[in-house]
UniProtKB/TrEMBL annotation:
Compartmental location: Cell inner membrane
Organism (species): Rhizobium laguerreae
UniProt-recorded name of the protein: Biosynthetic peptidoglycan transglycosylase
Keywords tagged on the record: Cell inner membrane, Cell membrane, Cell shape, Cell wall biogenesis/degradation, Glycosyltransferase, Membrane, Peptidoglycan synthesis, Transferase, Transmembrane, Transmembrane helix
Catalytic activity: [GlcNAc-(1->4)-Mur2Ac(oyl-L-Ala-gamma-D-Glu-L-Lys-D-Ala-D-Ala)](n)-di-trans,octa-cis-undecaprenyl diphosphate + beta-D-GlcNAc-(1->4)-Mur2Ac(oyl-L-Ala-gamma-D-Glu-L-Lys-D-Ala-D-Ala)-di-trans,octa-cis-undecaprenyl diphosphate = [GlcNAc-(1->4)-Mur2Ac(oyl-L-Ala-gamma-D-Glu-L-Lys-D-Ala-D-Ala)](n+1)-di-trans,octa-cis-undecaprenyl diphosphate + di-trans,octa-cis-undecaprenyl diphosphate + H(+)
């Protein structure tokens, strides 16, 4: 009995790493654990997969400037940011998120939503492996197609249609920035009906995205 339990645990731990290689194939459209949850609970969801070529570049610029400005330069984890996060936590200070796009992608694909040391311990090596195996372009494509942008709204195409009634390829810079700043809490932050605070954050990200330059070269070069 114990051997079976150990074997089952090992399979659960190893399976995500095998799936990462499976997701190298461009015709595979991964789903997130939240999407699977919605299916199990019979809620359903809206997700329309689109290739990165059909996503307005302003979306990539805005998301990177909002979520992970060093995306093109780290190997899945921004260790400098992580070190500062740990130091602030040990001091009892309020902490920033600290999650990179590979970390969020790994969490969305394989783990669960909640803050815990166990989840973070599983997330870090998965993020490094995901960034190592997948190209930055493919990783960004997957992230933008599984990110949650509202109850039952997953992926940038469904988000663009739901919030702004346009395809992802036609999003404006302001619309892209509103979607980007809503990502940390898409249930409470409605990109289509932003409050004053969300509009202010979007304006900041919009300005940063205009000067993205070298920060996005790993996606479009």
């Amino acid at each position: 009995m114990l051997k079976r339990i150990v074997l089952a645990v090992l399979i659960v731990l190893i399976l995500p790493y095998a799936l990462i290689f499976f997701y190298l194939l461009p015709f595979i459209h991964p789903v997130s654990t939240l999407m699977l949850r919605d299916l199990v609970l019979l809620r359903g969801y809206d997700r329309q997969w689109v290739s990165l070529d059909k996503i307005a570049p302003v979306v990539v610029q805005s998301v990177m400037m909002s979520e992970d400005g060093q995306y093109c330069f780290h190997g899945g984890v921004d260790w400098a940011e992580m070190r500062m996060l740990v130091e602030d936590t040990l001091k009892g200070q309020a902490t920033r998120g600290g999650s990179t796009i590979p970390m969020q992608t790994a969490k969305n694909l394989f783990l669960w939503n909640s803050r815990s040391f166990v989840r973070k311990a599983l997330e870090l090596p998965l993020a490094v492996a995901t960034d190592f195996v997948l190209s930055k372009r493919r990783l960004m494509e997957i992230y933008l197609n599984i990110a949650e942008w509202g109850p039952g709204i997953y992926g940038i195409e469904a988000a663009a249609q739901h919030h702004f009634k346009v395809p992802a390829s036609k999003l404006t810079r302001r619309q892209a920035s509103l979607l980007a700043v809503s990502l940390p809490n898409p249930i409470d932050r409605n990109a289509g009906k932003p409050g004053r605070g969300l509009r202010r954050l979007a304006g900041l990200i919009e300005r940063r995205a205009q000067g993205a330059g070298d920060y996005i070269k790993c996606i479009y070069d």
